[in-house]
Design a protein that fits this description.
By secondary structure, the protein is α+β, with helices and mostly antiparallel strands. The chain has three domains: 81 residues, no CATH class; 188 residues, Sandwich (Jelly Rolls); 73 residues, Phage tail protein beta-alpha-beta fold (3-Layer(bab) Sandwich), CATH 3.55.50. The strands form three sheets. It has an 18-stranded mixed sheet that branches. The protein has a three-stranded mixed sheet with strand order 20-23-22, with helices on one face. A hairpin with a 5-residue loop joins strand 7 and strand 8. Helix 2 packs across helix 4 and helix 3 packs antiparallel against helix 4. The chain is globular and about 90 Å long. Keywords: Membrane, Transmembrane, Transmembrane helix. This is FecR family protein. It comes from Flavobacterium frigidimaris. Pfam families: FecR, FecR_C.
Length: 368
């Protein structure tokens, strides 16, 4: 008895039919998740295999033929269903991210729109060029003779990232949904202080005479020449500072006195400032998990689903509505390449791996 005859015999048992169907579903889901074949490819492969077996045995009973037809339909049916977001979710309706613009508020209050793929110049009140934008980077020129603080504010919408080089050479990488207010020129004998809402990675130019300070609302991060990440979104309960290299301290805004109440971080540690009780703590972390966003990656490790949704909305600039409240505090692991994966692909992943059901309605993702 050949392998196919054995399979035919085995499938005659109703219980075995259920097992076989589950196996096919699982096998196909794994294959789809890895390769995402379209239904035409699957149909071709199945018909090819069926023709091979027909040549071998020449004669098939109608019953056997119907079984193979059923198996083929099962494969193709599952393929179609999975490609529609697994069981009744309509992914033919695609998600179109909102198109918000990067804006630069100048010292005189005027708002300038920055095209992320364009070039432009930034002028001061006297018509002098103080900055040059080229693609996703804005670079300010240094004027050592500047005597007046003039601030610009760069605002990055959801779904975009942008880099800026300040006049002292400090490079700042701004994450989606962030804004930073900074001097066009830093002034001699004064601190280099900037103001951040959202998330940014800093590579600060060392200048012992002019301390660099990042104000994150109620927290001041004092910099002593370093590379670090600050996450300070308004909806977060805490401000996180992850030190990659060098030295920084954390201190509640408004406290005076050198080294007073300063909490120093060691490279490889994350400092957490709780906004409500203003306490500061730290822990050893894998810093790459907190800086991977600069390369377009989102890394979630034991992250609550509520926080994952916030970050996905921010990075993809889409609306996600969670109607499954029990999911909010559940934790998940995932690594998402936002440059290569659409938001629908991301939710297909959550559906396949974590059985999270969703649908797309009026350009919104609704979690059922």
């Amino acid at each position: 008895m050949g392998d196919l005859d054995i399979l035919n015999k085995w499938i005659e048992d109703p219980e075995n039919q259920l097992i076989f169907q589950e196996y096919v579903k699982t096998h196909f889901a794994i294959t789809l998740a890895m390769n995402e074949p379209d239904s035409k490819t699957v149909r071709k492969a199945l018909l090819k295999e069926i023709r091979k077996e027909k040549k071998k045995s020449k004669i098939y009973s109608l019953r056997s033929f119907m079984k193979y037809a059923a198996i083929a339909i099962l494969f193709l049916g599952i393929g179609a269903v999975l490609q529609k977001n697994i069981f009744d979710n309509n992914t033919k309706e695609i998600i179109v991210p909102k198109k918000d613009e990067i804006t630069l508020k100048l010292g005189n209050g005027n708002i300038k729109v920055i095209a992320a793929d364009g070039t432009s110049k930034v002028y001061d009140a006297d018509g002098k060029v103080v900055g040059q934008q080229n693609g996703k980077e804005l670079v300010y020129a240094n004027d050592p003779n500047a005597t007046k603080l003039v601030y610009n504010t760069l605002s990055i919408p959801n779904g975009k990232r942008f880099n800026i080089t300040l006049s002292d050479g400090t490079v700042v990488y701004l994450n989606a949904g962030s804004s930073m207010t900074y001097p066009v020129q830093f002034i001699k004998n004064q601190n280099r202080k900037i103001f951040l809402t959202g998330e940014a990675y800093f590579d600060v130019t060392h200048d012992k005479k002019h301390p660099f300070i990042v104000n994150a609302n109620k927290l001041d991060v004092q910099v002593y020449g370093t590379k670090f990440n600050v996450s300070n979104y308004q909806e977060d309960d805490a401000t996180d500072v992850v030190l990659v290299e060098g030295s920084v301290s954390m201190k509640e805004t408004g406290l005076v006195g050198k080294n007073k109440n300063e909490f120093f971080l060691t490279p490889g540690y994350k400092g957490t400032f709780l906004k409500q009780n203003k306490s500061i703590s730290n822990e050893k972390v894998n810093t790459s998990l907190y800086t991977s966003w600069m390369n377009g990656n989102l890394v979630f490790r034991q992250e609550t689903f509520a926080n994952i949704i916030k970050k996905l909305e921010r990075h993809y600039n889409v609306t996600i509505i969670n109607n499954n409240r029990s999911l909010a505090n559940e934790t998940f692991n995932a690594t998402i390449e936002t440059n290569n994966e659409s938001i629908v692909q991301v939710f297909n992943y959550f559906k396949k791996v974590y059985q999270i059901d969703y649908s797309i309605v009026e350009n919104k993702i609704i979690i059922n």
